[in-house]
Design goal:
It comes from Candidatus Fimenecus excrementigallinarum. By secondary structure, the protein is of the alpha+beta class. 49% of the residues lie in helices and 14% in strands.
Length: 187
């Protein structure tokens, strides 16, 4: 039992010290245990943090883990750190982000075709905020860049994989227009 408690404390210290998402394999290597034992240790750490009402929680991002402050304490953390609040995303930025998240990897031309307007500035802003990134180029004339979401995107939206994105609403089919023949027969 003392060994499990020590592993738990060591995992917490590692994640606290790194301060960014860390691969499960690296955690297991540092703790000198296999990945399954590391995963169980991290589950126990998350449960311990929750049980004691800690101000921090363990966030899983795919195969990576990170200690984060709980959202309910964000105001107090900002006050102490004197962090300038980031400007919220515009409606256009959310739309572009949604198009990319649900269809990635996509080109700027695809995003513009879906939205019907130029998206260069919005894409540049989302890249600057590290919510999207260049994922390569298509093997087409002009070799257009393709974009996809980043681990920061998943962290900001508290999801561990893209499968956790909400389902898109079903597209409604417009009602059939009524024919004019019924009206002309009544007249």
């Amino acid at each position: 039992m003392a060994q499990a408690k020590r592993l738990l404390a060591a995992a917490e210290a590692i994640l606290f010290s790194v301060g960014e998402p860390l691969e499960l394999s690296k955690i297991a290597q540092a703790l000198e245990i296999d990945e399954e034992e590391a995963r169980q240790t991290l589950l126990n750490l998350a449960a311990t943090l929750d049980e004691r009402g800690s101000g921090i929680s363990l966030l899983r991002l795919g195969k990576q883990y990170q200690l984060t402050s709980r959202p309910e304490f964000s105001e107090q953390v900002r006050a102490v750190l004197e962090v300038r609040r980031n400007a919220p995303l515009s409606q256009a930025a959310f739309e572009v982000l949604a198009v990319i998240a649900y269809n990635q990897p996509v080109t700027k031309a695809f995003v513009e075709q879906v939205r019907g307007v130029d998206c260069s500035g919005v894409i540049a802003t989302l890249c600057q905020k590290k919510l999207i990134e260049e994922k390569g180029r298509l093997d087409l004339p002009g070799r257009p860049l393709v974009y996809g979401t980043t681990p920061d995107f998943m962290r900001c939206f508290s999801i561990s994989s893209l499968e956790e994105l909400p389902s898109l609403p079903e597209k409604e089919t417009p009602p059939e227009p009524e024919s004019d023949t019924a009206e002309s027969e009544e007249s």
